[in-house]
Design brief:
The complex is a heterotrimer of chains A (490), B (483) and C (515). Chain A has 20 helices and two strands. With 490 residues, chain A is mainly alpha-helical. In chain A, strand 1 and strand 2 form a beta hairpin. The radius of gyration of chain A is 21 Å and the shape is globular. In chain B, helix 2 packs antiparallel against helix 6. Classes of the chains: A mainly alpha (490), B mainly alpha (483), C mainly alpha (515). Chains in contact: A-B, A-C.
Chain lengths: 490, 483, 515
Amino acid sequence: MQFPILSIIVFTPITAAVLLQLIPSERMTEIRVTALAAAFFAMFLSAWVYFSYDAGAGGYQFVEKYDWLPVLGISYHVGVDGISAPLVLLTGVVMFTGVLISWGIDDRPREFFTFLFILATGVFGVFVALDLFGLFFFYEIAVFPMYLLIAIWGWKVTREYAAMKLTLYLFIGSVIALVGGLAMYFASGLNTFDMLALENANFSREFQIFWFPFVFFGFAVLGGIFPFHNWSPDGHVAAPTAVSMFHAGVLMKLGAFAALRVGIMLLPEGAQFHLPWIILLALVNVVYGAYIAMVQTDFKYVIGFSSVSHMGLVMIGFATLTREGFIGAGVQMFSHGIMTALFFAVVGMVYDRAHTREIPELGGFARAMPLVAVAFIIGGLVSMGMPGFSGFIAEFPIFMGLWNYRPWIAIVAAISIVITASYIIRIIGSVFFGDMPEQFVGHIGDVTALDKVALVVLCVIMVSVGVYPSVMVPIVESGVNGVLALLGGV
Amino acid sequence: MIGNVTTEMILAILPEISLLILAGIVLLMDVLWDEERRRGLGWLTAAGLGAILVISLAAAQPGAESVRMWGGMIRHDWLSFVFKMLFIFGAGVTALFAMEMRELGRRGEFYLLLLVSTIGMSLMASAGDLIMLYLSIETTSIPLYILAGFFKRDNKSTEAGFKYLLFGALTSTVMLYGFSLLYGFAGTTDFTQLTQIVLDGELPLSLVLGALLLVLVGFGFKVSVVPFHFWAPDVYEGAPTPVAGFLSTASKAAGFAVLMRVLIEAFPVAVPYWTAILAALSTASMTLGNALALAQHNIKRLLAYSSIAHAGYALIGVAAVSALGITSVVFYLLVYVITNLAAFGIVSAFSRVSGSDEIADYAGLSRRSPGLALMMLIAFLSLAGMPPLGGFVAKVFVFAAAVQQELVWLAMVGVLNSIVGLYYYLIVLKVVYLYRSEDEDKPVPLTRPYALALVILIAGVILIGTIFAPWFSWSEVASAALF
Amino acid sequence: MNFIANNLLTLILFIPTLVAGVLVFLPSQEKKLIRWVAFLGSLIPLALAIFLWINFNRGQAGFQFEEHFVWYAAINSTYHLGVDGLSLTMVLLTTLLTPVSILASYSIEDRVKPYMILFLLLETGMLGVFLSLDLLLFFVFWEIGLVPMYFLINQWGSEKGEREIWGGRKIQARTYASFKFIIYTMGGSLGLLLATQMLGVVAGTFDMPLLFERWTALSGALFGLPIGTVKAIAFWAFVVAFAIKVPVWPFHTWLPDAHTEAPTAGSMILAGVLLKLGAYGFLRLVLPLYPEEARYYAGALAFLATMAIIFGAFASYGQDDFKRLVAYSSVNHMGFVVLGIAAAAFAAGTEDAVIALNGAVLQMFNHGISAAGMFFLVGVIYERTHTRDLNDFGGLFPLIPVYGGILMFTSMASLGLPGLNGFISEFLVVRGAWPIFTVYTALSMLGLLFTGAYILKGIKKTLHGPLNEAWMGRISEINLREIIVMAPLLVLMLWIGVWPAWILDVINRAMAMFF
């Protein structure tokens, strides 16, 4: 057994959470520094795993397996493949930048970071889980801290409502998927929850067709698929900045990823059967989400809905069941994760100073915080799918995959690009340029050095992948090959 | 067999004998010690129970097969043993919690009644025939009636005790009638012989079922499933909180032990019908329990309805009459006992300081006493079924058992009910963590034993949720006794 | 030396970005330093481009100085650069106009650093389009060029002027212009994007040489439709995208606003190079990929070109705003380019087609030079008078004779006076198109007539006629820096007009080998 780097990554956050309990509440600086150190450590290790992943060899690497409950075939089985490796890196990056952005929280920061880290452990766990029970175990760990984080530290106006709605929605989805998981366990006859074994389980076609919607949609709720996306905008807006970053940046990818891992990879024939209407629903996500984003007046709602739209692209990419579609979806999960983390960070910075998020009331912020404006512009360009940035690298293959499936869907989905461009440009113009309203003049300070570090890190990543896709695509491709092999029999 | 009393027979009822001795010691000490030192009775009880636990584990473990003892009145097997340990543990924790309440902890009668009830539960778990079953149920219940109404001057407590008595009396009467019918038809009270008679077809099934339905009334009362649940909210609310804790955990577990044994050991032939009935009861309990819990603003009532719902979840495992099913039920009860004891323990601690059981008064607890709030968080999330806590694993196993037996719809009902449950547990936690109050600077002090007990329970909840293999194997062994 | 020769194109392409990167680290207040670093930095690509020109083997067919690196292998797209005669000309134009424009921007005082950075990034974007031999890469650079331009117009464009939009809201003219520019162009390139995706899927590669072979070799049915229909749709998708950029009438409506509201140097680059991107797209992509469709629809294209020539000229004539006049003149001049391309598409392979193409490409270069010059001169007078309204001027020649002389020279080149560059290219287009599209060419003569009219109107109102007393003593002569900006342009206008062989030879050989 090799060095258990994945387990260390998974358990570092929760260990840090436990350690934080030992620090008295009043010592806020120590709390923050500890949290940052833990986050940095996790990010460092996740980058290590990512860059050490051998794309040529492919398959699952850094595998660890320990018995958990052998009688029922439950084991602690973890590993990364080409699709999960970028996502592990994403989680590390978002966690690190999230802690940086949260430096200013002064209402019980200890509890805040505790819950945030429990969430992080859950997320890491899902991405590396290779045992179905383990996946559900960590999945739910990633759900419940959201309630506390949003309800306690969120936006006072809607936080309780949004937190409850989000938690219930996500929980419903996950337990429905759980039942599906249990069904798979029993139907396989293999008496194991090990996903690698279940990949070869040969479920009957009727079984797959029946259970696929449960599993896929149960998880895709977290991915924000229409019409179960309703929790997302409110949840995004009500959450405190770092939680929104995590939520949109990582959590939604969790849903899509689990839908892929458990739904598509384990029930490929079911996926084949159901993909037409999944594509349609995801198409609604893409176009409708963009349209709704366009008409919002609250800055954060715009971004919330744009997340719904971009996640739609991820799910379209999956549903095409083509090589290009999967590659695009894999990159999009990473690219959008970074991009939306940046967006929410910027929104938080603006809101902390202006105490309003209504776009008509803002203006001229580029002069007060120039780096933030540039960062937001870069994020906006990624969102639009502007070539030269990671968003284009992600979206282009997804469309190629669509061409292989039904060209007209590609054409309809492309409309969203123009809509996205228009609202992004509008926001940039309204919030950052133009004249600053009088009540703000002289009162808006620039962001802190830590904030700037976070923004620069995120921007560099997006530009790097955009300019030199080979830094990510080969890894994703190797993971996609594994997925396609499972679909090959279909 | 009359006459020769062998060592094995003594060992088979070693826990009960020890409990009886401990009860005697407590009674004696109660006379000898004066008012001030009576608090030591709690320590005595708890320590004694701990000792009994250890002794039983060391000396009285059963073999792999279920053995009939004492003329068939006692079954000595792992099912009964696991449950006995659970009851003793629960009683010990309850004693620790009750120590701090003046009106409870200084009264020797409290500990005596507690111990006697525990004896009754132990016997329930190992009952091998109808007479023993009835006797043990009554031995369990009557002390509990008194304990519920222990606060003589409190109207609510008196009402609780009275209600409990009336309800209990009624249901046990119906149950006894059922027993008498069975005896009348079969001519024997011994389970094994009953099984044989029914299997041989000498009794028409419909008669058996009819009698069993009557019996179910009594069991249902003990387990507090719908529609035999009406006593629970009022009794839990009125009874002293540690007593409510004990009621909701050990007593309920005892009911389950009896239910499983009677159902599977004595009447395997009626299983298909049982499954349908139990599934219906389970659905009703879960749904009604969760639905009514939504409307509560008193935390003890909320926990009462939540207990009803949890009985429903556990019944899913029973309805899936299979090895995994029974295993999952035992596991579920294990987790549930620990979690609910912790919940009631926290409630008790808080109400001692604030004097209130209203949920709204818990506002700001996270700032008053972060540790207590955190423990409450863990307990409630475990009740909701969140990992990495025991409640999650327990629910997964129960649902798995249902799915395995093709009762997927039942698992779905359970799953959807979990969501409702999550809602009201989160509401409580929201009040604790989010809402503010003026009392935030007044901490909630816990004495060392109390805190220790809580920490052990909470640690147990987390432990069972993460490293669950050992507990699962215990449950498996317990269920193996029935299959 | 070897390194430079081996990676010449990459160096030309990315040195502007590198210089922009250097600028990031300079302090914002050191405006002079920033300007000079930017200017000198932009001379490097020019030097390299001249080096490239000299070492280009004009007799050889195909692409030279090719570079091939891995880029997005998963979807068969590579980093593939190369030049032929056509792109070489455009590269020279771009690398020449950029330093000229930067020098012209020395009068900008507000946020000099981001301005210069954006300008340099824009240069990389434009060069990338011209150098790219991979369709996906082409698209990437095509889009990249939009963003800096948007910001240049939006942030440094003319401060005066308001437009009313829906809901009665008033926004600044430059905001309106920039938004219209980017959305219009992006909307147009949406079709290009979709068609590119499809091409990549169907042909299995984005590499242009391979793509040309495979795509034209396709037959049968595709996506359930006959291949002809699919190709026609893709053809129009490409055409619309490029037509918006050129711009071809009636897709030109973004241009007057964008050109007018842009800062002087922005207009110079916009008219000088950006419009050529569209025409280049026609030549590089549309003609090779869709020869039959191009021939089939060439008539329609020629019609639109003629309309552009005529209406552009009329519109120009009707303007009172000097800058808008010059803006419409771009429509007018680019119409000739499109006419030449249309003629060549229709009669591919004939000598006339080659002549027409020569004219078109040379016109691209020439118009770049003269339009940049014209916009600059408008900018010069605007800085002094703070008005662009022709009616406000009057008889300024005696006050600013040097400026007047330069303006007249440049205007004549724009007008197509024989002896200057404009004549050569327009003549070639007309000569080549006449046998092919006689009627259209004849009609476009009408446009040519009005070209003369609007140019002369512009000059007359500004320089001639009675002196407008208001300006006496209030207007300064063109200064040294501004003369230096114009100098290379003037030299080229004369040189090409008198002895065009040096450039025409390169173009001619490239066009002759085009088919």
